[in-house]
Specification:
heterodimer; A: 123 residues; alpha+beta; 3-stranded antiparallel β-sheet; 5 helices; 3 strands; globular; B: 356 residues; alpha/beta; 6-stranded parallel β-sheet; 16 strands; elongated
Chain lengths: 123, 356
């Protein structure tokens, strides 16, 4: 596993940051992979248009878990516009690992949940 | 236990007068435990069994017919020495006491049906209930609910109070048995409670026969998975509850008792690790994990590194199941449930023929 995954990825998998739930989140959305069963819920608390707090919860593989943990770090303190602009590649590069095409879905699951939550919030 | 309630209702629809035979005491070996019941109807219907059939049940049926004729309860003591046991074909040399009570299911004065309905209501609510019957005066009955509430009487308030204390203690032990109260009155305490529950995390192919078999064994069954495509009623027609969501989050909402079996069949660390972090500290009767010894070792190491106490890790059965050469999913399910039942019963697994 060490050869495949970076220390950053492994650290965020073993010690996920911002894991848990928020009381009264402004945005909450759960996404899952229907075949492998990864399931991640992203929660965000906004102050005006700024992300004041972010949490995630889920049972997911190392890549998904680490990506969710890193994503919370990327968005806390950011403006909604900046959050919406986070690209797939930015999150994947934050994992500092060679994510194979077959595992991109794992890495992007938390971002998919966050984007869906933002869409719901914007309605 | 479900069987008992169904038998009573079935008989109440078809028979007026029935004899209820209850195994109230055993000494030596016995194929059934105290509380086993057999019903013999006036019209000839027979439901249940106090042994495993054969000559002893035949004798109970004959005695029940006598009880129905006289309409007086009788305590039948079957003292089976080895020789007697051999002669009457009873395979186990044990002594049994069977209380046979005549009931008129059509009479409003006969409240046994109502008492069993009250017991069933408590059990359906996830509570225990104890029906208390003096062996010599079985027309007196006391019902003790898990919260301590009582109804009925044994004939004297002090007996009721003592019986209430004993009943609550036996609820804790989940055991039906005969107890001599302070005034030497021999009283049978019939403990009823919710059926054991099997919670399966992972709705894969092994989970399917596991749930079917558990259902046939009378267990309440729950399947948890994050994948709606797998956790379907079509794949699990017998399951009592299908729960879809984040498995470890669902695990936090479930109750774990000394009658709860948990089996993790996902064969995927992303479910196994977080669910085990919740389930092992809750100390259910059994926790089994599908996987090889090598995989089990890795999972345990990971949990240990995360701070889990080694004594909790020792409770994890991995690989799960008995070594019966299981190959197919159904055989694996059988081996898992056999192990779970043995653990709950505190038995060392061996061939019965080799048991000393």
């Amino acid at each position: 596993m060490a050869a495949l995954y970076s220390d950053t990825l492994l650290d965020h998998f073993r010690h996920p940051r911002n894991y848990g739930t928020l009381p009264g989140p402004t945005i909450s959305f759960e996404s899952f992979n229907p075949l492998c069963g990864d399931r991640i819920r992203m929660e965000v608390k906004l102050q005006d248009t700024m992300v004041q707090e972010a949490r995630f919860k889920g049972d997911a593989c190392a890549i998904s878990t680490a990506a969710a943990s890193l994503l919370t770090e990327l968005i806390i303190g950011a403006d909604l516009e900046e959050v919406s602009a986070i690209s797939d590649e930015r999150l994947i590069s934050a994992l500092e690992s060679d994510i194979k095409p077959s595992r991109r879905q794992c890495a992007l699951l938390p971002l998919e949940a966050l984007r869906a939550g933002l869409r719901n919030y914007g309605r | 236990m479900e069987e008992l309630f169904e038998d009573i209702e079935k008989l109440a629809r078809a028979e007026k007068r029935v004899a209820m035979a209850t195994l109230v005491a055993t000494r030596g070996t016995s194929p059934k435990r105290e509380g086993a019941k057999m019903w013999v109807g006036e019209e000839g219907r027979i439901l249940g069994s106090v042994t495993i059939g054969g000559c002893v049940d035949a004798r109970v049926i004959a005695e029940s017919e006598k009880v129905l004729s006289s309409f007086k309860p009788q305590l039948v003591e079957m003292k089976l020495a080895d020789e007697d046991a051999w002669e009457i074909g009873f395979s186990c040399a044990g002594d049994l006491d069977v209380l046979i009570e005549p009931l008129d299911l059509s009479s409003p004065k006969d409240n046994v049906l109502d008492l069993y309905r009250a017991v069933r209501a408590a059990v359906d609510n996830g509570k225990h209930a104890v029906l208390v019957t003096p062996l010599k005066e079985s027309s007196f009955k006391l019902l003790v609910l898990e919260g301590g509430e009582i109804s009925g009487t044994l004939g004297a308030p002090e007996l009721d109070r003592e019986a209430q204390t004993v009943a609550l203690e036996l609820v804790r032990k989940r055991t039906s048995c005969t107890v001599s109260l302070a005034d030497s009155t021999a009283v049978f305490f019939e403990v009823h409670g919710p059926p054991p529950t099997l919670i399966v995390f992972g709705a894969g192919h092994v989970a399917m026969p596991l749930i079917s078999l558990a259902h046939d064994l009378g267990l309440k069954t729950v399947v948890v998975d994050g994948r709606p495509r797998f956790a379907t009623r079509e794949r699990f027609p017998d399951v009592d509850e299908l729960l879809i969501g984040i498995p470890s989050e669902i695990a936090e909402t479930l109750a774990y008792t000394s009658s709860t079996f948990v089996v993790l069949t996902a064969h995927d660390y992303k479910y196994d690790l977080p669910v085990l972090r919740v389930v092992l500290p809750a100390k259910p009767a059994y926790v089994g994990l599908l996987g090889s010894e090598r995989r089990g070792k890795a999972i345990k190491e990971f949990l240990k590194d995360g701070g889990m106490d080694e004594s909790l890790l020792d409770q994890l059965h991995v690989p799960t199941g008995l070594d019966i050469g299981a190959d197919t999913a159904s055989e694996i399910a059988l081996s898992i449930l056999a192990e779970a039942v043995a653990i709950k019963s505190g038995r060392q697994v061996a061939f019965l023929k080799d048991r000393k």
